[in-house]
Amino acid sequence: MIDLRIPVDPLPISEPLVLRLRGNRAESEHDAVLIETADDYREYEYQGFSLTVRAPASADLEGDVLMLLPGKPSAHRLIRANSAHNTFLLTEQCDQLCLMCSQPPKKHHTDLFDQFAIAASLAPARAYLGLSGGEPLLHKSRLFQFLSLMASARPDLRFHVLTNGQHFEEEDVEWLSEIGHDRVLWGIPLYAPEHYLHDQIVGKQGASERLEKSFSILARAGAAIELRTVVMAQNNTMLPALSDHVYFKLPFVRHWALMQLENIGYGRMNWDKCFLDTSTDFQPLSAALNRAISRGIEVSLFNFPLCTLPERFRYLAPSTISDWKRKYLPECDGCSLMSTCGGFFEWYIPDKGFARVGAP
Ligand code: SF4
């Protein structure tokens, strides 16, 4: 697993500080420039101060964007310049309580949007950044400000915003239209066609109806939507009906991602009652996929190890598990599919997972 924190010698700061590590020269006031390298640390010069980063000489940190917190001996690697998997955790607050949530909500919120704006402004050209939570739209005005700022300061960037879709309002249509469908993709979960089941899964009465209102607002604004459905024991038999629902009721959705469960957070707590072993029980998912494909819906399978899928559906499963939390099993040794397979989450427990895994 790649550690998203990196040890540093604390600086005498009173506010979070965002800076970018550079090997040769500064291109921005936020750049720290390398002045010395040893086996287990590097010394950077930042605005007249010295910053010590504790990392082996082999670690590639060029262009990485760090956030240092007052008094803390480690920094958050907000952006790893050589990775396509960079996500800002905007808030840990949420107004849903999803059965399988990988990032269980917390009450407290620290507003770091200004720091995230600096970080994004230092991202590599044409980067695609994830924005997630918690529920980012609980801080909608700050989020919209951030995205508007980025649209003018860094028009080359694109964003994927993961939201529960509970907070779009009629008055947002104009802003949503202006920000554009090419810059922001809204990732929104829908777990079942029936209100009661979706509400049960997300732990909030009325969530499904509220989602319908948001879909209508987003559709009118021409916003790009990626529908996300975690496949679970709870909604397994409903998947073909959900496929019909997507086709008939949500024709404006750009992409539908059907996802495997992540064994962390509430997902770990509820694993035994939620995990669906799709390596042995694929029939409802297969029916849902066939209906979607035959109707021209762009559909994908996220977080599915390739060998757990019937061969004819493997082309739908890109490698989606972020590099820093991806692993492979001993069974993967010698597998011919490894270069395109996304493997498993770092916290996947084989004894409680797929019955059929192994190099084809
Ligand atoms: S054996 Fe491992 S690498 Fe091969 S398809 Fe299965 S999970 Fe992927």
From TrEMBL:
Database matches in Pfam families: Radical_SAM (PF04055)
Domain Radical SAM core: 90-232
UniProt xrefs under InterPro entries: Aldolase_TIM, Radical_SAM_PqqE_MftC-like, rSAM, rSAM_paired_HxsC, rSAM_sf
Transferase listed as a keyword: no
Assigned keywords, A-Z: Iron, Iron-sulfur, Metal-binding, S-adenosyl-L-methionine
This protein's record includes keyword Transferase: no
Cofactors, names only: [4Fe-4S] cluster
Protein name (record): His-Xaa-Ser system radical SAM maturase HxsC
Lineage, highest ranks first: Bacteria, Pseudomonadati, Pseudomonadota, Alphaproteobacteria, Hyphomicrobiales
